[in-house]
Task: structure prediction
Amino acid sequence: MAKATPTKGLNRSAFDNLLLYICQQVPPDELGKTKLCKCLWFSDLRAYAELGKSITGERYIKGQHGPIPADLPQVLIDLERKHRLATRKRRHFQGQYQYEQHEFVPLVEPDIKSQFSTEQMAIIGEVIHYVCHEHTAKEISELTHNRIWELAEIGEEIPLQTAFVIRMGEVTEEDMKWGRRVIAERSAASAAA
Result:
């Protein structure tokens, strides 16, 4: 398997510190990978919609349980290697169901003062509360299964620009053509880089 190419435009320091901050704010047994992904997604999505720019510059792709950060697997490996984050898998029981939950423990203080503006911190705080305290992992996952997510294939990019399409209503064929063109242009630019 080829090594994944990092997202062009990714602010790795902002991504690392946002991830660490989320993990610091939510107890490990309450976060899990699904909620972590949703906190990252909604933080970038809301910042893009409200401030005109995402917080991390990350690219999100369609996963089974909703949008996931494309660079998350490598980021987690790097943070563990640098002893900035500990991860573990734990059996979790919910009623009669048993599943494996990822738990994340930050080993360093995230740098939030130099990384995030007051507006970004307000968005991040609201997102953490919304995702982690108002919803179960299953509920928040289902909320991300909107029309845009349904139209994408597993592993296909879900551009943050879709925040505006989601708010305006149904996706038209013209919207689909535009989305395919943007993805093709980004793919060509990535291949040329």
